[in-house]
Amino acid sequence: MPAQPSRAPRGVRHVRPLSGRAPTAQRMIFGETLRKHREALGLTEKEVARGIGGCSASKISRLESGEHDFKEKDVLCLLDVYQVVDPAERTRLLELSQQANEKGWWEAWRDVAPKELQTYVSLEDIAARIRSYESGQLLGLLQIPDYTRALVKANSLEPGVRTAERIMELRAIRAQRFLNESAAQLICVVDEVTLSRGYGTNPIMRRQIEHLIELAGHERISFRLAPSARLNLPVQIGTTTVFDFAADQLPAIVYVERCNGGLYLQDRQEVDAYERGFDRLMVNSLGSAACLQKLKDYCQKYR
């Protein structure tokens, strides 16, 4: 079992990977360490910026949110301001900052992975628990390659064969890594619409649903189903993923899909609101056994 997710309080903060490097999980973790040092001394970002000179409060904010590389000079200046004097601790933190700057395995797919997705994949890699609801398609971790290819082709204005294949490769590797290397729990609310209005051909949808049935028996994966015929389902949270992490890594982070790109939320009140929304949807959806039966029924439909 993974360690209990962190429930530490958090100030108002959004992660917006819109400029510079995408804020990956490792950079966010080191940035969180810097933030804790700053807050332990009761310093504001502006006061820290003044303390090290030649720096802005916005840069301190970007460092803490993982949206900026950690240069050794900057880290040493910050450690001085934060009164970290023990040589062993300074060495440890410098090594962590260097590790945070390392490129992720997904860098080879940057041509088809926008910054929001790079952040998503990095969080997916280290999460202790992932809670997800997708309203228009199946979660990427659950997709078979043929489904992914058909989905990309159907939703691209000018679909390129190479682009579709690259996206398919990346999703397949993510799924393999989750099944073979991760210890995270996945709780997924499947919307029945994604089963009834599928992608590809009947044989592709049948293989996709057979894959879901196989995954339903995995010890770290649990499904619920939001049925199309049920009234008053609280689905207005839209496509949402909640990432929970082991204690002392990161507070919970919510990813919300938008038509013009995703948004990452870390504000405690906003995260709580989405968690409550997800829990309401989960409770009002069909349980694991009923969901499995629905999947079997759809297998027959796509014969």
TrEMBL record:
PROSITE patterns: HTH_CROC1
Every HTH cro/C1-type domain range: 34-90
SUPFAM superfamilies per the UniProt record, alphabetical: lambda repressor-like DNA-binding domains (SSF47413)
Superkingdom, natural source: Bacteria
Pfam families given in the database record: DUF5753 (PF19054), HTH_31 (PF13560)
Any one GO MF annotation of this record: DNA binding
Protein name: Helix-turn-helix domain-containing protein
Origin organism lineage: Bacteria, Bacillati, Actinomycetota, Actinomycetes, Kitasatosporales
